[in-house]
From TrEMBL:
One of its GO terms (molecular function) is ligase activity. The keyword Ligase applies. It comes from Streptomyces lonarensis. This is Phenylacetate--CoA ligase family protein. Keywords: Ligase. It comes from the Bacteria. InterPro entries: ANL_N_sf. SUPFAM superfamilies: Acetyl-CoA synthetase-like (SSF56801).
Length: 407
């Protein structure tokens, strides 16, 4: 898992050849490798890493390894700098994604369910893939999306109250915002019959995800992926995201370099597609931090504990950076804490902002952060409404203390 040097499988070799022969970007990579023996197996670890910058610079179809008429869908995501990352898919690609998702979702959804898909549909593949997979397991689907003025968050909340979906496919932050809207309108969200929250992104600490789902009386199931890497992690029956090993080969590397991290360490997830026709990716740096782990469910595929974006790490004056998720887990594990914890630097000091925590709870949170990082933290509080407003303003970016101070 942590190195690219495992014996190459036929499937991996086929994918490497397909990419190096057909994708305009990888043909250039192959061109720079000329002189090596053409019939010898390609060694994955010998290939350069592919970055989001590479994908953005190649343009919308710069990676597309199929002829134009075979493209069944074109979608985009954006990297942390806002650059569009294009991804085409063939009918076969879409079928494989839907089948993998449907197989995983069968443990969580079925014909008796009505599911709301509350993540963006515009240009993105994730909502459409989830929609198709839920339909494939027989669930009813309402595609409320997340960005369209046709269905703003107020309308989504009204529809949740009226239609009472049993499954909500969203992010923990959107689930919280919907909960707050319904509560303000006099509803009791726990009484609305939600059974499962399928979290599609918005990585947060396990303690926070459980708390958000519990507010609704639901259980949490995690998926992981992007428009470029759909269905890369899918939930087991216990709700933990496992690597979709049939579709991806994974490496975990030092986010500040290129070396593999030791087994069980947290690092940047690097994915190689195994069955992509339209957009094969070889050693793609996802920019996402994961810690591979064993899951109690017995599934031998590695569980992917999500730790947020590489750029969201907190860097101490010396020593190893900490992920925002690690810091959040330490703080929100303190009894008496609530649903939010923003961490970062403020006025030159490591700072955590909590929602509605008492003085004693803030002191305990400061102790927990010191135990984790070895330095002193200031811990302040803001009310939950301020967090809801700041989260909406921050969009996909992780919340920082400055976002709350600005309010
Ligand atoms: Zn599991």
């Amino acid at each position: 898992m942590t190195t690219a040097e495992r014996p190459a499988t036929d499937r991996l070799q086929q994918q490497l050849r397909h990419a190096l022969d057909r994708s305009p970007y990888y043909r250039r990579v192959a061109g720079s490798r000329r002189g090596r023996h053409d019939t010898a197996p390609v060694v994955l670890a010998d290939l350069p890493l592919t970055t989001a910058e590479d994908v953005a610079a190649a343009g919308p179809l710069g990676f597309a390894a199929v002829e134009y008429p075979r493209i069944a869908r074109y979608a985009e995501s954006r990297d942390h700098a806002g650059r569009p990352l294009g991804a085409a898919a063939t009918t076969g690609d879409l079928r494989r994604t839907t089948a993998a998702m449907a197989e995983a979702l069968r443990a969580h959804a079925g014909p008796a369910d009505l599911a709301f898909v509350a993540v963006p549909y515009e240009l993105s593949g994730g909502a459409q893939d989830t929609d198709r997979a839920l339909a494939a397991v027989g669930a009813g689907v309402v595609g409320v999306g997340a960005l369209s003025p046709v269905c703003p968050p107020e309308r989504t909340a009204e529809l949740v109250a009226a239609l009472r979906p049993s499954l909500l496919a969203t992010t923990p932050d959107r689930a919280l915002a919907t909960h707050a809207r319904l509560t303000a309108a006099g509803h009791v969200p726990r009484a609305l019959g939600q059974r499962v929250h399928l979290y599609l992104g918005g990585p947060c600490s396990p303690v926070r995800a459980a708390r958000v789902a519990e507010l609704w009386g639901a259980t949490a199931a995690w998926a992981y992926g992007s428009t470029l890497t759909p269905a890369a992690g899918l939930p087991c029956a216990a709700g933990t995201a496992h690597l979709t090993a049939a579709l991806y080969h994974a490496e975990v590397i030092d986010p500040d370099g290129t070396d593999p991290v030791p087994d069980g360490g947290c690092g940047e997830l690097v994915l190689t597609t195994l069955a992509a026709e339209a957009t094969p990716l070889l050693r793609y740096r996802t920019g996402d931090l994961v810690r591979p782990a064993r899951c109690g469910c017995g599934d031998p595929r590695p569980a992917l504990q999500q730790h947020g974006r590489v750029e969201d790490r907190w860097r101490p004056p010396s020593g190893a950076p900490r992920t925002a998720v690690e810091l959040e887990q330490a703080v929100l594990s303190v009894p008496g804490t609530g649903l939010y914890c923003a961490t970062g630097w403020s006025a030159g000091r490591p700072t955590a902002v909590l929602d509605e925590a008492t003085g004693g709870t803030r002191s305990e949170a400061a102790r927990a952060l010191r135990a984790l990082t070895g330095i002193a933290w200031q811990v302040t509080a803001a009310d939950r409404t301020a967090f809801l407003t700041a989260t909406t303003r921050a969009g996909r970016r992780r919340l920082r203390p400055a976002d709350l101070e600005a309010l």
